[in-house]
Amino acid sequence: MAKAAERLSLRERNKLRTRQEILNATLDVFNEDGFPGTSVDKIAELAGISKGTVYVYFPDGLNDIYRELYADITERLLKATKEVRAKTPNPAQRIVAMADALLKLSAVPTYGRFYSVLSPELRPVLTPVVGMASKQFVTLIATDLAEVLSETADGEHRTSIAELIVGSMREAGRIVSETPHRKESLIVALKRIVGAIAGEDVPE
Predict the structure, then answer these.
(1) What is the distance, to the nearest Å, from the Cα of residue 7 to the centroid of all Cα atoms in its chain?
(2) 74-108 pLDDT, tens per residue?
(3) Contact 65/26 with Cβ under 8 angstroms?
(4) Which CATH number fits domain 1-59: 3.40.50.720, 1.10.10.60, 3.40.309.10, 3.30.750.24?
(5) pTM for this structure?
C-alpha cells in the first residue's frame, strides 16, 4: 500500500514537472518569436515532448497556456508585493516598493515581455485573469493614500489617484520589459511623483 502511494506521488510529481516544462518552453518561445510566432508545435519541440502531450495538459492549447502563465506571474508579483509591504512601515515608501517589485519582475525578459504584451489578439484570451494585480494594487495604494492625504480627499478621489499611479507603474513595467536598464531612473521618477502627492520626500 505504501509503495503504491509512493508511486502515485512520483507520478504526480512527474505530471507537475511536465506541466512546468511546457510553461517554461512557452515563455522561451514567446520571448524569442513574440505572440505571432508562438505555436504549440514550437513549444512541444522545445520541451522535448509530443504535441499531443501539450494538449493533454492544456486542452485549449495556447489559450489555456497563456491564461495559466499570466495567472502564475500575477501570483508571483502579488507575493513579492505582500513581502515588501510587510517590511515597509511608511505608506509613501510602500507605494514605491510595490512599483519596485513590479519592475524587478518586468526586468526578467521571459516574464516581463509576456506580462506586458496585451495585443488585441491576446487580450480576449486573458480576460478571465488580466487585471487582478492592478485591482489589488489600486486597493492597497488607495489605503496608503488615506494615511498621507488630507481628510478632504474622499475614497473616490483616493481611488482615482491610485488608478493613475498604477497606470504609471504598468507603463513603467512595459518600458523596463524592453529596456531593463531604465528601471532605476523610472523608480526615481515615481518616488518624486508619490512624494509630491504625499507632500513628503521619499528617500532616493
Answers:
(1) 35
(2) 999 999 999 999 999 999 999 999 999 999 999 99
(3) yes
(4) 1.10.10.60
(5) 0.84
Distance (Å, whole) CA 161 – CA 69:
29
Asked if residues 196 and 149 have their Cβ atoms less than 8 Å apart, the reply is: no
Cell numbers for 137, please give them.
494594487
Distance CA 98, CA 94 (A): 6
Give the C-alpha separation, 198 to 166, whole Å. 15
- b (16+ CB within 10 A) / e for 92-116: bbbbbbbbbbbbbbbbbebbbbbbb
Question: Which CATH number is 70-198's, of 1.10.150, 1.10.10, 1.10.3470, 1.10.357?
Answer: 1.10.357
Mean pLDDT by 10 residues, the chain (204 residues): 54 85 92 88 94 94 91 93 94 95 92 76 77 93 89 82 95 92 96 90 68
Mean pLDDT of the chain: 88
Residue whose C-alpha cell reads 487585471 in the numeric block: 131
